[in-house]
TrEMBL record:
Record has Metal-binding as a keyword: yes
Xref: CDD domains: TrHb2_Mt-trHbO-like_O
Signal peptide, first to last residue: none
Keyword set includes Transport: yes
Entry's family note: Belongs to the truncated hemoglobin family. Group II subfamily.
Pfam family, one: Bac_globin
Designated name of the protein: Globin
Record-linked InterPro entries: GlbO/GLB3-like, Globin-like_sf, Globin/Proto, Hemoglobin_trunc
UniProtKB keywords: Heme, Iron, Metal-binding, Transport
Amino acid sequence: MEGVNEIRRGTLQEQTFYEQVGGEETFRRLVHRFYQGVAEDPILRPMYPEEDLGPAEERMTLFMIQYWGGPTTYSEQRGHPRLRMRHAPFKVDRAAHDAWLKHMRVAVEELGLSEEHEEQLWRYLTYAAASMVNTAD
Ligand code: HEM
């Protein structure tokens, strides 16, 4: 008979990053805090076409959830992310990149994740931000 402390073969499921860091709530907190920064930012705020930042916040939240292994609601609503293409209408220069990452940094730190999770998240965000730059000046 199996011991009570044994894990039955095949029942140990690997958790996604999304689950490991606390699921939907964590990503909602991250992106909400980020958009509080955007709302006050003299470079970023004017770039957003809509007066209400709420819908943009929701799109970014659903994207992050999907990227990190949660539900795929983003693609159900928006299709393939194609982020570079979706950013093409906006002038993403060095200054916009730096401002974007500055607000993300604050938001990431406030999550209080483990060092490993924080590093993994931050590595992705810095890489993704660099790849979104589409204007040299
Ligand atoms: C580097 C500086 C960046 C700037 C200045 C910027 C700016 C913007 C702007 C103005 C929009 C349109 C707002 C809207 O109506 O949704 C947008 C959309 C979006 N951005 Fe960025 N962004 C940057 C980087 C990134 C990065 C690194 C990611 C992902 C890791 C990202 C993810 C998204 C997503 C998911 C959307 C919504 C796309 C859609 O479904 O339409 N952005 N961004």
